[in-house]
Each structure stands twice: as C-alpha cells, then as structure tokens.
Specification:
Number of helices: 4
Order of helices and strands: EHEHEEHEHEEE
Shape: globular
Strand order of the largest sheet: 4-3-2-5-1-6-8-7
Distance between the termini: 14 Å
Radius of gyration: 16 Å
Number of strands: 8
Largest sheet: 8 strands, mixed
Strand content: 15-25%
Length: 190
C-alpha cells in the first residue's frame, strides 16, 4: 500500500490559502511577506521531490500549478513524475502536455484504489478542498507541515470542521527555525 502524504504551508490558525501570492485573497503571499527566508526551513520540500513517486492534486491546484511548475527549476523532479488530478469537471483536453503523465480521478474511491497499487509515496500539494475530503475519508497517512508564525483569520483551512471521531497523530519529526517557522511531520495513527 502506498503512503499518501499531505504537504502544506499553514498558518498557526490553520489557513492554507494563497501562500504563494495567488490573487483574490487578502493575505496572499503570507509565506514570504515579513518572514525572513531561511533555506534550511524548506529542506523538506526538496526531500519530498526525491522521495515521492507520484503527485495528487485537486482541480484548482492543478490549474494553478500546471502552467508554472513544469518550467521551474525548483520543481524539476516533479516534471516527469506521474500526476493524478481529482476532478469531476476536468477532461483530458484540459491537461497540459509538458508536465509528465497525468490521470484524472473522479472519486475518492479511485484515490483509495490508487493507494492500493505498487509504488512509493504519493504527495499532495495545495489542494485545500481535496485535503479536507481525503482526511475525512481516512486516506491521508502522513502530514508534512511548515507552520508559519502568523494568524490569518479568514481563509481556506487545511483541516475540515466535520464532526467526527478524534484522529490521533504521532509526531515523527520536528524542528523550529530562527524565523519562527516550525516543521512538523506527523504520521496518522490507525
């Protein structure tokens, strides 16, 4: 069974919306505004590219990343990696041709089936709505979180507000950096 890893930049109050400056959100770009850049705080991002064998995205994140990431040196290891996009509306004609093999999945059952295939870890970037659905369905195995020392208030959240039984997490890696960012890696306890 493959490991499904949710990777996120998250504010202390759980917001994940527009960390890179995407338009339409009041605090867009919060990961680099007033936060000193320290390369060591982002080491996990390079490690994710080396360890992941596939990427899973929601439609909105796919449409945001696919025009940009294929040409960025920072994401070169993702270029040819198989990608899976969970969407009820995208068609094959909507997919870009320069970002490696991409498969559209229509349901969370298809994501569960993908996890049952042979292969290594599957990484989820962005995809706030998909992350909440995956978590509620019990499909996430690990969280890679870079927690920023900010309270953003309104915005898309990483975790759902669904009334459900507690889900226990085990901290397996952590570090705090001089700029206040905290790396927190949790395994989901089943």
């Amino acid at each position: 069974m493959r490991t499904l890893i949710s990777s996120a930049f998250v504010s202390l109050d759980g917001v994940v919306e527009a960390p890179g400056g995407e338009e339409g959100y009041r605090n867009a770009g919060w990961t680099f505004k007033d936060i000193e850049f320290l390369p060591e705080a982002y080491e996990i991002k390079g490690r994710e590219q080396q360890e992941a064998t596939a990427m899973l995205l929601g439609r909105t994140s796919y449409q945001a990343f696919s025009p940009v990431w294929p040409g960025m040196a920072d994401f070169a290891d993702y270029k040819e990696m198989p990608k899976y996009v969970v969407s009820g509306t995208l068609t094959d004609d909507d997919l870009v041709s320069d970002w490696g093999p991409t498969t559209i999945l229509r349901t969370l059952d298809e994501v569960a089936a993908l996890k049952e295939t042979e292969g290594g870890p599957i990484i989820v970037h962005g995809s706030a709505t998909l992350n909440r659905a995956l978590s509620d369905a019990g499909l996430i195995d690990r969280y890679h979180l870079l927690v920023f020392p900010l309270l953003l208030g309104a915005g898309k959240r990483l975790f759902s507000t669904t009334d459900k039984d507690a889900q226990k997490l085990r901290l397996v890696e952590h570090e705090t950096y001089a700029n206040g960012i905290q790396k927190q890696v949790f395994d989901v306890v089943r």
